[in-house]
Each structure stands twice: as C-alpha cells, then as structure tokens.
C-alpha cells in the first residue's frame, strides 16, 4: 500500500513542503514545460518553482498542442531559457522593457532536447541563458558540468537577474529542505562517505 501524498506538492504527507513554499509576485511570467518522466521524480523542483510563483504555469507533456496560445500571453515577449551559441545572456529589465515570458523546459538534457525537437515552435524561440559559473546547491549528485542547475535554481537565478534587486531566494527554501531530508534519511555517515567533497 502506497503512502498518502500531498495533492499540492506531491510529497508524502509526512514530508509535505507546502509550509515552506512562498507566494512570490514577479514581473516575469514563467512557463515550465515538464517532460512526463519528471513528474514522479523525488525532487520535482519545477513543481516547487511553479507553486512558489504567482505568475507561473506548469504544463506536463511531450507535444504541446496549445503551444501557440501558451507562448503568446498578452503583454509578454517569449524567450526560451536554454543554452545555444546565439543565446543572449539575461540582464535586468530597463524601466520601459516589455516583460518576458520565460519558457523553461524541465527534464534531463536529453529529454529537454526532445521537447524542443517535438515542438518546433519551442525550438524557434529566441534563447536566453544564465551567466556562467552558477553552482548548484544539490549536494546529492555531481553536476554534469559547470552551470548545471536544477530547474528551481535556474528559474531563481534568472529572476534574480531580470528583476534585480528583488530577491527570489525564498523559492529555494523547499528545495533545500528536500535535500536536507534526503541527507537525514541516508544518515550523515553515508552522506559524508559518498557525497561530501574531499578536502
């Protein structure tokens, strides 16, 4: 018999994170397109990000038939947060800038690329990127390379740049609690042996 789960954060009710999830306003609209394989993932940080932002939407799928509508909310210009040679680094809004619809594919790099391949409208969007050197706080898995961040970390960093000096750090609170919970579950000794950086 499976454990009861919170219908909002999808965590087991004994480990519900809803009390830590903020309700943040943002000038930027965030659209997270989540590959179905991520829905049951233990972290599912995209869901945490979407729940913590009042101006965010999470859509699960591989092919998005309503993409033309999703990518064209009135008053926003759509940009895809995904690396590319011609991707523009994000920078803070000027006072008269039209805000962004920040489109964020959620999945492994392979699954995210598949979403772009299956949705040509998505692949055709102008791309934006984060500054180099972001370091993930996810201490349980070695990042595949510098700048490899979880979805909630990437969204937080993007909003911090776009909407400076507003802080979006509270978005990371449930993510950090999730990591602490996983470390506690495995035990400090196992964590030290397998995951801590040797000095």
From TrEMBL:
GO MF terms, alphabetically ordered: tRNA-uridine aminocarboxypropyltransferase activity
Superkingdom field: Bacteria
UniProt domain DTW: residue ranges: 2-187
Pfam family, one: DTW
Leading EC class: transferase
Gene Ontology terms describing biological process: tRNA processing
Entry's family note: Belongs to the TDD superfamily. DTWD2 family.
PANTHER family attached to this UniProt entry: TRNA-URIDINE AMINOCARBOXYPROPYLTRANSFERASE 2
Protein name from the UniProt record: tRNA-uridine aminocarboxypropyltransferase
Protein's organism: Pseudomonas lactis
């Amino acid at each position: 018999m499976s454990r009861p789960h919170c219908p909002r954060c999808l965590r087991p009710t004994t480990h519900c994170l809803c009390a830590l999830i903020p309700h943040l306003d943002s000038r930027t609209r965030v659209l997270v397109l989540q590959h179905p394989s991520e829905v049951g993932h233990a972290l599912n940080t995209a869901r945490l990000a979407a729940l913590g932002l009042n101006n965010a939407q999470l859509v699960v799928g591989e092919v998005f038939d309503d993409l033309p509508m999703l990518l064209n909310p009135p008053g926003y210009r759509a940009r895809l947060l995904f690396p590319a040679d011609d991707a523009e680094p994000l920078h803070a809004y000027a006072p008269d800038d039209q805000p962004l619809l920040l489109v964020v594919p959620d999945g492994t790099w392979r699954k995210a690329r598949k979403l772009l391949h299956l949705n040509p409208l998505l692949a055709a969007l102008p791309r934006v990127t984060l500054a180099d050197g972001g370091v993930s706080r996810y201490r349980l898995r070695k990042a595949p390379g510098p700048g490899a961040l979880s979805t909630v970390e990437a969204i937080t960093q993007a909003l911090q740049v776009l909407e400076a000096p507003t802080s979006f750090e509270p978005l990371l609170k449930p993510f950090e609690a999730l990591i602490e919970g996983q470390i506690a579950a495995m035990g400090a000794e196992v964590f030290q042996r397998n995951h801590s950086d040797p000095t």
